[in-house]
Amino acid sequence: MEARCEKCQKVFTHPKFQSKANQKLESHLNRKNSCDGSTGDYILEKTSTFKIPDMDTLDMECIGAVVGPNLRYTWTTSAIFKVLLDTHKFATIPNIKKDEIFYMLDGRAMMSTPTKFVLDFWLTVMTKRVWPILKTTWELSGKFANYIGDNHGSVLGVPASQIQLNKFLRSKAFQDMKSAIIGHLKTFPRSERTQIRINMGSRAEERVIVFKPRV
Fold first, then answer.
1. In a domain, 50, yes or no
2. Is residue 215 very low, low, confident or very high in pLDDT (cuts 50, 70, 90)?
């Protein structure tokens, strides 16, 4: 006797054993979401597996693994972002076809465009947390400072005016770090990107203003 679902008429088979086909049918019939929709709206299992840390509270210890004499100063932000992402999994792009990045900030899930997210990372992590470490422990910190300064005017990354902010956003330094950061986010498998998003909770606020210059 064939293993057929009476609801959707799907037939389950096995090349050798009918019992295996029957097991497939039984599993199909016992699924949480009925094949004919009789169980109501589709239920997606959302089980949190670990707590996502806020971007502004990340433990910086891991950056010591990449900061050294062989790190090219033009790749500094990229390398530091990657090691922080690999260690803490603090941000994700659930759907790589959409320009939406999700991350935690001040205990809330945020949804942001790539430009706003990279600016947030620069101001929140690189400027406030990483730079104080680099300038006292890294022999190439001066070159990194000059590289950013040539594009921005301030290694601390805090624009003094809208003109300076716009200059930084258009600079090669910013465009290069944005390209690298988006690339790192997309290297995670889809299932892992989705799980990170699930771990942030169902609601996310749109990140509207990252930084507002004084003038």
1. no
2. low
